[in-house]
Amino acid sequence: MELLYTSTRGDGKTVSASEAILRGISPDGGLFVPVSVPTPALSLSQMLGLSYQALAFEIMKGYLPDFSDAELKDCIDKAYDDKFSTQAIAPLIKKADALFLELFHGPTLAFKDMALTILPHLMKTAAKKQNIDKEIVILTATSGDTGKAALEGFADVEGTRIVVFFPEDGVSDVQKRQMVTQTGSNTLVVGIQGNFDDAQSGVKQIFTDARLLSRMEEAGFLFSSANSINIGRLVPQIVYYYHAYLQACRMGEIQPGEVLNVVVPTGNFGNILAGCYAKMMGLPLGTLVCASNENKVLYDFFMSGVYDRRREFVTTMSPSMDILISSNLERLLYWAAGEDSLKVRELMHQLAETGCYEITDEMKARLSGFSGGYTSEADTTEAIKRIYLASGYVMDTHTAVAYSVYSRYQRQNPGDDRKAVIVSTASPYKFPADVLKAIDPKYGSIADFQLIQALSSLTATEIPQGIQGLEQRPILHKTVCEKHEMQQVVERFLNLK
Ligand SMILES: *Cc1c(COP(=O)(O)O)cnc(C)c1O
Q: How far separated are the first and last CA of the chain, in Å rounded?
């Protein structure tokens, strides 16, 4: 039977995988989830010898049954090629007694590339299947990394346009420069006077504005999303949890079947949710440690069962995790509520109205496989320095949040002797100022761009291609708007009357 998708806020109606990918978000405001979780056809030991690409095919095909084998293979081959600077695509590295899953060897140096290099191909294939003759307009809100990765993926892809909104004052110098220098005649990059949550709410609002949607339809456009609300992002992310596990087996760190913990630096809950899906598919994962920075709304949620966004938004040096509304948590709630979309609708309504909701004890009990942790800026800094001194390995600020949370987890759970993988989400080259300052205060107030060379010398690594010469590239996008002007900006870009 073919796997279908349904909305977390829906009435049980289902859509095909390609329709879910094209739409991005359900018209009722909910997120698409698979009606059941597929199990891989191969056993772990049969998967041990697979390349990343072959593994991606095995894992993804269960989720995309309306793609032919040839179509899916074609998407995978176009995504995971020499755009990545290592053949392993996502290598598992052992340093200072920890295992790091490096997800930052793609073109934009952050883990978003793992899914956004393939999403445009999935989307084009889906459009062909659905006989869509409209131009697909990708609308994306970014906390820094998604934007650039989506722009790289969709730039000059025929039949698509892409609009990216980022918090004008909420991203690193390197992140911002990566975006505003983007080429491609179908791209638009806009800074907003607000934070990521504002950008994300604005985009969601545009997506569900019925009047706008009908005008779009008339003009021959169709909106879709490159944010992690799109299942076309979630599904490719499941692959690297298998890849990590299999590498740990090959390295002799674990035996096939042994349980492995994972620690994930979390913002919108997309990455860790993919880990949760891998576990539901039967991958022997133990505790999923959800690591937050000082925006610790998820930590509080896992501790108390209360999600409360009514708090001050903190700007940290791990900006891609500066989020108070974690969109993908809705998918976890749906599962924890026993797939009760009425319950999810009620909770999401409360969140919109009051900024807060509380889950039932039953739901809480179903979340026992997660452990929430958070860390301060000072502890993040300390972790970067400690690992560097111990092993010469330099973590980026987001990975350092995960590492720091994991250190505390170990202290608090001395009985848990399972090995753990630290999911490493960005290259230190994306955040050179904060990383180097953590290692040595002498780098104090020097700006990002002046420190790239210093980081290269210190780590004896080559400057990644994605940022070589970045500072000299011409700035092509200068639009800045207020939160309430986002829709107008989109209408102007599309020449809507
Ligand atoms: C996006 C991002 C995160 C957060 O991932 P989510 O899927 O939103 O939880 C963490 N670290 C980096 C570097 C990121 O770009």
A: 44
What is the CA(396)–ligand 1 centre distance, in A? 12
Residue 469 backbone zone (phi > 0: left; psi -120 to 50: alpha; other: beta): left
Atom 1, ligand 1: which residue's CA is nearest? 320
Burial 206-241 (b: 16+ CB within 10 A, else e): bbeeeebbeebeeeebbbbbbbbbbbbbbbbbbbbb
What Rg value do the Cα atoms of the chain yield, rounded? 21
Q: Categorize the per-residue pLDDT at 409 as very low, low, confident or very high, splitting at 50, 70 and 90.
A: very high
d(CA 34, CA 20): 10
Exposure string of 413-433, with b = 16+ CB inside 10 Å and e = fewer, is eeeeeeebbbbbbbbbbbbbb
Helices (H), 145-228: 145-154, 173-180, 196-207, 210-219
CB 142 within 8 A of CB 322: no
Q: Based on the number of CB atoms within 10 Å of its own CB, is 408 exposed (0-12), middle (13-18) or buried (19 or more)?
A: middle
Q: What is the residue type of 179?
A: M
Residues annotated catalytic, as ranges = 112
Enumerate residues 6+ apart whose C-beta is below 8 A from 487: 202, 205, 206, 209, 212
Give me the residues paired with residue 141 across strands.
Answer: 165
Pair 141, 165: CB distance under 8 Å = yes
Phi, psi torsion values for 189, nearest 5 degrees: -120, 130
- DSSP annotation of 356 reads E
Tens digits of per-residue pLDDT, 136-154?
999 999 988 899 999 999 9
Task: Write down the pTM of the prediction.
Answer: 0.95
* CA–CA dist 490, 190 (Å, integer): 10
| Ligand 1 within 6 A of CB of 228 | yes
39-51 residue pLDDT tens: 999 999 999 999 9
For 60-109, the pLDDT digits (tens) are 999 999 999 999 999 999 999 999 999 999 999 999 889 999 999 999 99
The rounded Å distance from CA 240 to ligand 1 centre is: 15
For 219, 360, 378, 434, the CA distances from 316, given in Å and listed in that order, are: 41, 32, 11, 10
